[in-house]
Amino acid sequence: MTERPLTPEAGEAIAAIATPVGVGALAIVRMSGRGVLEIADRVFRKKGGTAFSFKEAEGFSAHFGTLSDSRGMVDEVIALVFRAPSSFTMEDMVEFTCHGGPVVVRHLLQALLDSGCRLAEPGEFTRRAFLSGRIDLLQAEAIGEMIHARTESAFRTAVTQMQGNLSRHLQEMRAGLLQSCALLELELDFSEDDVEFQSRDALRLEVGRLQGEILRLVESYREGHLLTEGVATVIAGRPNAGKSTLLNALLGHERAIVSHMPGTTRDYIEECFIHEKTMFRLTDTAGLRESDEAVEHEGIKRSYRKISEADLMLYMIDSSSGDFLKEAAAARELRQRHPESGMIVVANKTDLASDAGGRIAQLQSETACPVIAMAASKGDGLNELKSTMAGMVEGLDKLHEASVLVTSLRHYEALRNAADSLDNALQLISAREPAELIAFELRSALDYVGEITGKVVSEELLNTIFDQFCIGK
Amino acid sequence: MYDIIVAGAGHAGCEAALAAARSGSSCLLISSDLTAVARMSCNPAIGGVAKGQITREIDALGGEMAKAIDATGIQFRMLNLSKGPAMHSPRAQADRTAYTEYMKRVLEAETNLDLLQDTVTGIEVRGGQFFGVELQSGRILRAGAAILTCGTFLNGLIHIGMNHFPGGRTIAEPPVTGLTESLVAAGFTTARLKTGTPPRVDRRSIDYSIVIEQKGDENPPPFSFSSGSIAGKEQISCFLTKTTHKTHEILRTGFDRSPLFSGKVQGVGPRYCPSIEDKIHRFTERDSHHIFLEPEGFHTNEMYVNGFSTSLPEDIQIAGLQSIPGMEEVKMIRPGYAIEYDYFHPSQIRRSLETKAVENLYFAGQINGTSGYEEAAAQGLMAGINASRKLKELPPIHLQRSDAYIGVLIDDLVTKETNEPYRMFTSSAEHRLILRHDNADLRLRKFGHTAGLVDDDTYRETLNKNDEIVRMTAFARSRTIPAEALNSLLPAELNRPMTGGQKAASALKRPGITLNRLFAALPDFAKEARLISSNPLVHEQVEINLAYEGYLKRELLQTEKVARLESLILPETFNYHSVTGLSSEGREKLLHFRPETLGQASRIMGVSPSDISVLMVRLGR
């Protein structure tokens, strides 16, 4: 094969802030693509006034100097040069490390944008790395999660996944499926050959085992997505039960991540807080009550949808109100409608209620949920609530690095489908249905697993057969 | 000047010439030996798993193979009957001589077709276009297009023990020399493959008290949708025996004189059809292998020793055969041998089977690295159709993977990297439940009709059949079968008694329930149904469609999922170097195969899903 050396066509120059927004010691702004070396030359002056051009700079070289926009110097920076294809995106890249602080960083980014860069879309650097063949899909997703990882354990999961733990596990499972499939194909294509076929009992055992493995991974998504996405927590309750106060109290000074910088990869919509290494994504909901007003009606519909997606519900009840028992019944009903989600009843305004202790006991027996006595406006009961919340998702922080977790929805869906196909296969085996239908289900399962691990080709099936069996008259 | 010249009159060449002539092109078929057309050089049998389906497809498209085997078969069996309808596969032993004679008569009867006994030793190309073929005699024959179907003849080399000599098919037939070199000069790349055949023995020297008889099926269905019933045809038996520990010991003593093990054979042989020495060598734990004794015809004593393909020295072959129970006194008529030959990797052809390097030049059969009469005939047929259409400036007919095994075959050829002779397996077809032998007419007659090989009346018959199937299915969906009738039909031990009635369509999904049984139980239902159709083949289709319904729907869904990729055309001149983001392996494979569609590209090993996304972006989605 005579092939020309690769000269990948670089994409247009893009820039973005690469470090979390907030006050830190240092921050990094990076750019990638066509012409970034020229752009860097426009904004950067090397310290000491020596003549310097990025176009002559070697890859992996660092340069100290000043970065200026049209109005003057922005900051002292260190510029790190990557030359194509030896960079993350396989394009020319320049990274500027500057002093942390939102204002400096924003000015620096603005200077680059003014000099010819376009603001990167969320995930665009990773996408370029993927499209250039630098990383595969699974790695791209893991990097995506790493960037978005907001807690220590989530970070560990992403790293573990990058190291191929999940890949390895899936490869093993795929090999098992391939083997079962090959044994069935043997019966179909080589029925006239002098080979022994696997018994249906043995096949059932093996398919059952594989399904069990897949289901274990499917199950792990429940924890896996809590780790990376946080525990979706909604605060529900009647208007004026004190939901907003609770939200603010919970976020308090722990309000960890706030970013409204458009175009960066960290546009967080929900408000998050971390307690004991577990992240909670808090959503306040419109008050739940019957309403004729269209706007409010829409809001309530949204609230119910939020509730149905929640991992954890905090149901606020004004314990000082006369009809607090009616509210308890509403909480119970909501709990029954969403048995998958956990619920904590927050009995608010206990400082205003007469016989608070008695009322809490009543709420407890009425809702069969943990009840936290609280005076949100004073901050009473807040710590107890947080501990209870963490307790509801107990076990999360105990997941150690060796465990394999499914953390992406795409993987979850694919595995869920594979498990369904195997379930069909098991039913067909029990019903003594013909081999080609069982093979159909096993092939579907292989295809679904293949959506994560890469496609399966029929040559692999045939190779498996030829390697093991004496085929051919 | 002829429109089309076909070089080679094997299974590919005969179908190619007939298809070209029948679709209205004047055609010349050239063969070195016109007494040996459509020769079964190896196993005297047509069909089998996947191959039987292909034979039926060839028939639906207007080819000849199915009719030929219906006329000359000596034993018919439906394989895989214990499995579902998609796996049912017709197979027949042929009278080898009668098959050749039948095909010769058909070729001679074709008005648009001339025959010439000569050997094509080269091609002439002008301006990237096929110009003419060069004959042994030195003559140049011009034509609009040519189809090369050279089988194993190109620089054929036969091995028996440490002896080897030039041979095209058998020891008696000379190879073709010069043509490979001429093609290489025209820009093609060639490589070597190997295949082999077992010895033939005298059927009078077999002890029939020891070997086990295998009879044909009673009342077998015909291969061809147009043949009348073959149910009453005379059939003869095959016989089963097996090698012994002693056989293996004897054969091992010849391993030091094996051209396979000594490295004399360069070509790659098929793993699915290994020689007996290969089987003994690789599967040491087996102390016995099946041997099938298959008669070569009604009027010959030659018997084919299926399972004993070998290139060991003759003395070892005889001693080995005589150690097999029932063959102690066996007389060998001719020894087994291995043959090496040139082929051209099919990444050099388009899915129309036209070569990429030379316009109006087509390859079909073993020259493309395939094995098997049915695989060859299918390619010959499609090459004949498409060469003829090309000259008439009509677009080629492409069968998709979901249309036919033939579609799978050709797509595999142009996208796979196999370096062993390619054989069709049902596992290679992702739409196996749709690609059944029983519905080949419904799937493919329209293509045959478009090609001009299926006449209007025959095509109308198929349309009517389809219409009856549709109406009968609707009828079955609309009529309720009362509970008591159902209970009388269902085996008591398998099912709880039904309390309510059920639509006939649902009842037909239950095991053991057929339209015929419903007819017997419900005279009124039967009367009404027979008004729609009394054709048992229509009933069969309705039953299969309903029983497989859920699966067929899922297969169709998959077909639709990939249909978009199949319709996205990649120009042959597409500049893969300029596309950013292709993996280097993907780029290399794409440059090698130059796929015609994104669908094809997606099936090339080494081209990743992300490469496909990148190409999709480049093609503007």
TrEMBL record, chain A:
Enzyme class: hydrolase
GO molecular function: GTP binding; GTPase activity; identical protein binding; metal ion binding
Binding site for Mg(2+): S244, T265
Annotated GTP binding sites: 240-245, 259-265, 284-287
Entry's localization field: Cytoplasm
EC code(s) of this entry: 3.6.-.-
Quaternary data: Homodimer. Heterotetramer of two MnmE and two MnmG subunits.
Protein known as: tRNA modification GTPase MnmE
Organism: Chlorobium phaeovibrioides
Gene name, Swiss-Prot/TrEMBL: mnmE
From TrEMBL, chain B:
HAMAP family noted in UniProt: MnmG_GidA
GO molecular function: flavin adenine dinucleotide binding
Quaternary structure annotation from Swiss-Prot or TrEMBL: Homodimer. Heterotetramer of two MnmE and two MnmG subunits.
Organism: Chlorobium phaeovibrioides
Lineage: Bacteria, Pseudomonadati, Chlorobiota, Chlorobiia, Chlorobiales
Binding site for FAD: G8, A9, G10, H11, A12, G13
UniProt protein name: tRNA uridine 5-carboxymethylaminomethyl modification enzyme MnmG
Gene: mnmG
Biological role: NAD-binding protein involved in the addition of a carboxymethylaminomethyl (cmnm) group at the wobble position (U34) of certain tRNAs, forming tRNA-cmnm(5)s(2)U34.
Alphabetical list of InterPro entries matching this protein: FAD/NAD-bd_sf, GIDA_C_N, MnmG, MnmG-rel, MnmG-rel_CS, MnmG_C, MnmG_C_subdom, MnmG_C_subdom_sf
